[in-house]
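Q: Hi! Curious about what Lipoprotein looks like structurally. Here's the sequence.
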Amino acid sequence: MKFKAVPIAVFALMVVTGCRVQVDNDKNGQEKNVKVDTPLGAMHVQTNNTSAADMGLPVYPGAKVTSGDGDSKSADVHVGVGPWQLRVKVVNYQTQDSEDKVIDFYRKALGRYGDVIECRGSKPVGTPTATREGLTCEDKGSSHHNQVQISSDRVGLKAGSERRQHLMEIKRSGVNGTDFTLVALELPGDMESPGESQ
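A: Let's find out. The predicted structure is below.
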C-alpha cells in the first residue's frame, strides 16, 4: 500500500507545482536526455552528446570516446534552484598512447585556464601545489562544496578556481593504452547547497 501511495503523491506534487518532465530516448530505447522543470528550479541531463570541445579543451590526437566505467560516454548535467546553479560536463576517452603523453598534452591544454596542478589522490605531485585562484588537490571536507578530488589511486590534472574547474583524470593506464576522463565543473557562486544556511 505504501508503494502505491508514493506515485500518487509524486503526481499530485507535480500537478501542484507545475512540473514538466521530458525524456528523450536514443535509438536503443535508453534515456538520453532528461529535463525536469518546475517553478522552483530545473534539472537537465544530456548523455552521450558532450565532447572535449564543449569544455573548451582539445581532444587528444587519435583518442576515441569510450563509455568508461558506466554505460554513458559523456554527460552534461545542469541543476538550478533560483540563483543556485551547478553545471558538470564529463566525457571519457581512450588512446593507445601512454599516460605520460596524455598528461603532457593536457598540462599544456589546461594552461589556458591558469596554473595547472598534478594530483595523485589528494596529494600534489611536484609544483605548483595550488593554483593562483586557490584550487588544490585536497578535498577540504564536508563544510566545503568546492573541491573535486582525484580518486586516491589515480593521477590527474586540475586548473582554474574552486568555482570553475577543469580536470583530467587517468582512469586506467597500461600496455593497451590509456583511458582518461575530462571534467568541466561550474559551482554555485555562494558555494552552498540549496537549503543550507549561509
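A: A fun detail: The longest strand covers residues 84-95.
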